[in-house]
Predict the structure.
Amino acid sequence: MLQSGSLALPANPNQDFKPRTQFSPAQLDQGLLLFQLKPAPASPAIKQARLQIRQDHQEPKTYPLSLENTAGSFQTTIDLNQELAGSPIQAQIEISFDQGQSQVYPLADYQIPLDKLKPQVQVQQEDRTLHVVISRAQTLEQAQLLLNHQAYPLQQISPALYQLSLDLPTTETADIQLQAFQQGHEQILYRKTFQPVPSFNQPPETSTNTADPFPAIYPAPTYPVGQCTWGVKRLVPWVGDWWGNGGQWAQSAQALGFATGSEPRVGAIACWDDGSYGHVALVTHVNSTQAIQVKEANYNGQGSIRNYRGWFDPSRGWGQLTYIYPPGR
């Protein structure tokens, strides 16, 4: 852990301005761990605060804190659906005050209450391919898919995420069982029988081009299959692996140096922040700021990647809109 820095404040150089902090498991049923910070009494105004956490020998992760209310409290949300292990969290907060001083405060180790963190299974069929994702998987030791009694191990993408994609049979039914092992005990997380799928017909997209300029060919192992983030990651290669929920993408991209703005451009990512999970889509056609077309997943619960809406006004009803521009544009 980093050592505390020095802070010289004119009022009382010996006064401790370490804020009150806590991790809250109140939203663990959604896979979210809340971190809250309340400034110490008589503390100078806080300009910026960041939480840095480390587990075992992994690289540290940094989470910017946002102002929660007029009382000056800050908070951030840690998404356990796809990242972090079950081991204790070693943390510190880095604070910049309005006067220009800064300070680093180490925090006590925190153990995630794993008994409240239940694995979540997502299964999405795309043409003949079956995509399987287990998130919030910190308590699992191994996972495998049985297809007609043949075992296929899931790849562990992170301590919290397992994923597998495989083709379904074209001439026979497919009996699927998803097995997981926890403390040596086997459990069945999912089972279903799929009928033969020699072809999968989708309504053609409206386009004057015979070739799709944005095919879904890129891997997206760190995003849940069928979600909007997974869909955009499949479409463009320059998206990062850990940008969070759709509503967080603009902030994540800005932190990495990507240009953002309010002008729609072909090849840009539209990012809507509604204060919750948000939504992202890839811009494929632009007529004006009020008329664009996009390719996306998880539109009205539809997990496939396609153009669902034709021309539409992106400024209506989706929250704050920001466009993320590709590198070099």
User: Anything to note?
Assistant: Helices lie at 228-235, 249-255.
